[in-house]
Amino acid sequence: MDVQHCGSSILISATGELDETAGEVLQRALDHVTMDEHDLLVDLHAVAAMDVDGLLHLLSLHRRAERMRLRVLVTGWQPQPQQCMATVAGIPGPRAGTAERHALAGFRRLLQEKAQRAHEHSSFADGWLPRA
User: Fold this and answer.
1) pLDDT confidence of residue 9
2) Does residue 113 contact residue 68 with C-beta atoms inside 8 Å?
């Protein structure tokens, strides 16, 4: 994860996988926002994979940035992260347009709720069910 402050913008360039380990880095990215910064650009061109935890961290970053009155643009959605988002949202098909929908607050709330349920379900299963 690379974070750059460029004039009135903050650029986060993510690489590799967006998973549970991304949370702390994404949250620290907004620790030094100034009054002069107005935009947050999250570049996902180099993110080949994302899981539910990564989606939750991305949604949390988006929500925190909006509370700081930053305009947020997430760009460069790759096929697997888009498919992960579509699966969580319950939208069938490989070309579900989820990257475009990510900009809509209502869609992000839906994703947040469904991703949280999926995370809790997987955490419950990991902690309580016997392994085969």
Assistant:
1) 93
2) no
For tokens 């990564």, the residue is 54
pLDDT tens per residue, range 89-126: 887 766 556 666 666 666 777 777 888 887 777 654 45
Residue 99 identity: A
The residue count of the chain comes to 132
Q: Alpha-carbon distance 119 to 52, whole Å?
A: 7
Output phi, psi for 90, to 5 deg.
80, 30
Report, as an integer, the average pLDDT of 26-30.
Answer: 86
Distance, in Å, from the CA atom of 100 to the CA atom of 77, rounded to the nearest integer, reads 10
Report yes or no: 30 and 64 within 8 Å, Cβ to Cβ.
yes
